[in-house]
Amino acid sequence: MGISDKYKEWFYQSDYDYETAIDMFKSGRNIYCIFMCHLCLEKALKGLYLKRTGEFPIKSHSLVYFVDKMELKLSESYYEFLFMLNKISVPTRYPDDLRKLTLTYTMERTENILSQSKEVQEWIKKQ
């Protein structure tokens, strides 16, 4: 599998994870929806990293790390979104209090994260 096939695989998995995020949202599993949004964008960024550098990305879950490493010219709103999603990824992976977290991430708030994730994912894949 050549580099082009490998980065396309990252993008394919990013799409798959986004579809999973939609399914989690539809079933009311907002925390898993957010987790999958983060994973979707992580894989899109890793695919872009591979495409640009020809190097396999390091094992990091930090969205901001890959943005900074590639010196991506994101809009301020995209950067702020990625920063926020990066910050909430640990609590959604390993919640201290799941009940409290589910009250924090309402359907409306989660739908907004889902929508923004798709917008940013599409932008990343066009780079």
Describe this protein's structure.
By secondary structure, this protein is mainly α. It has a single domain (3-126), classed as Four Helix Bundle (Hemerythrin (Met), subunit A) (Up-down Bundle), CATH 1.20.120. It is built from six helices and no strands. The chain has helices at residues 3-26, 30-53, 63-70, 76-93, 98-104, 107-126. Helix 1 (3-26) packs antiparallel against helix 2 (30-53) and helix 1 packs antiparallel against helix 6 (107-126). The chain is globular and about 45 Å long. The two termini are 21 Å apart. The mean pLDDT is 95.
Strand content: under 5%
Mean pLDDT: 95
> Unreliable runs, pLDDT <50, ≥5 residues?
none
Q: What's the CATH superfamily, by name?
A: Nucleotidyltransferases  domain 2
**Overall structural domain count:** 1
The biggest sheet, with number of strands, parallel, antiparallel or mixed sense and barrel status, is: none
According to CATH, what is the topology?
Answer: Four Helix Bundle (Hemerythrin (Met), subunit A)
**Named CATH architecture:** Up-down Bundle
Which class in CATH terms? Mainly Alpha
* Overall number of strands: 0
The N- to C-terminal Cα distance equals 21 Å
